[in-house]
Amino acid sequence: MVIKLRRTWKNTIKKYRTQPLKYIEPESLEDIREIIREAEKNSFPVRAVGGGHSFSNVAITGGYLLNLRRLKRISEPDTSCLKAGDYANFIEAEAGITIEAFNKAMEQRGLCVTNMGGIDNQTLAGAMSTGTHGTGIELPAFYGMMRSIVLVSADARVFRVEPSNGITDPEKHAEAGITLIQDDDRFHSLLVNLGCMGVIYSLVMELEPMYWLKESKELCYWHEVKEMLANRSLFETDEEGKQKYRGIMIQMTPYPGKNGHRRCIIVRHQLLPGRPHFKFGDLFRNIFTRLGTMPIFYWLSVALVRYIPKAIPWLINNSLKSLKDRSYINKGYKVLYQGVEYVKIRAYDCEFAFDMKDNAFVDAIDELMDRALYLAKNHKLYQSAPFGVRFVQGSGAFMCPSYHKTACYIDTPFLLHTIGSDEMLNQYQDAMFRFGGIPHWGKIHNRLFNYPGRMAEFYPDTARWLDSYHFFNPKGTFINDFSTRLVTSFEQQKAAL
């Protein structure tokens, strides 16, 4: 393992940083166990980090900080320990491999992720632990692909955790030093665990045979999209009642154009039957999308945002207009990856999930756009990037915002260095809380603890999550300021019931 002292770690947007007593890059399962034993012996807390893409203090610690980036090996599951079945689409990967590296390795095996977020610099464990989703009203979020998790918990104990009907045959399980747990509550607690229960070592994922997607982008206006969302006609179905499009997302500006309407782009992903015939140009997104990969584009945008803020509405409107694309065809993961990563890792946001049982999410979008327009007119504070809207299937993970509900996620990104963005994000959060939104753990959610009376509403099964927390972390080995505040809120909620 690699150990560094006097090391400063920062998240991707450099908003949170820490100087831990030890910064450690383990290279094996035994390295993680050794670190935890040493930390507990000296009463130091332990936290693990991945790509650093979370916009909160979830990973910050003054104790031992583990960067898992050297844990990136991939292997086939040991089928001799598994129940009878077809495991051709299953893969086991160490926790520190990035989604980008994982996707490239899976392409060589003819496999593809079912869903993923719009960028790929996160690690597998980091994306799972903070609730990364993706889009697709009939698709699981990213963590929905997990089938088995190897966790190192307090006392350096190692567990393989699976659902009650997990893939491992208990009578055949023979991993030395690893205890098998097959329990729905333990598994659903770990899926979005926020680093509170230990250090993830590896994950078994169920993927799909490689598939091809066609992406199309339709330019329209908010009043048109609003109607399609309200009556659900946006989600077209075929003759068998299945969704016509595998995934849909929307980008929009809060600022009306010259015609008085707010511009939107509807992005649709259509599953293609096998390897398609396509023109050479179909393999590339349009030139304006590719500009987002260039640093000069980002820094020009930042200069405009800071020094000519009145131009921001024009910039967003024309950016959306330029994104219109007839078609982009490629392998699934390449289409799910939305590009412009140089910009995206230099932006931050809050994002909330809304139950689609009613149209509160539509009203929330209206409120956000009106709020952005008010702040621009009265305080010269501007939204510096388009709002985003995605849709995802419900999940059994206790701490995910889409727990047991089909959810609409509303995203409010800002470029770094946007003046007034923190206050605007506070106002956006308060507005989305009013409409019943639940925050994404990997994004800005500092206002969450202003609503202690609603924690039971947001996370109705926290008692079951807490039980797993105390089981895996009985000594408080994996605490930090974030987890202490979270667990205290949940304990108070439990006591009040």
TrEMBL record:
Pfam families: ALO, FAD_binding_4. Residues 16-210 form the FAD-binding PCMH-type domain. Keywords: FAD, Flavoprotein, Oxidoreductase. One of its GO terms (cellular component) is membrane. GO terms for molecular function: D-arabinono-1,4-lactone oxidase activity; FAD binding. It comes from the Bacteria. The keyword Membrane does not apply. Belongs to the oxygen-dependent FAD-linked oxidoreductase family. This is D-arabinono-1,4-lactone oxidase. The lineage of its organism: Bacteria, Pseudomonadati, Bacteroidota, Sphingobacteriia, Sphingobacteriales.
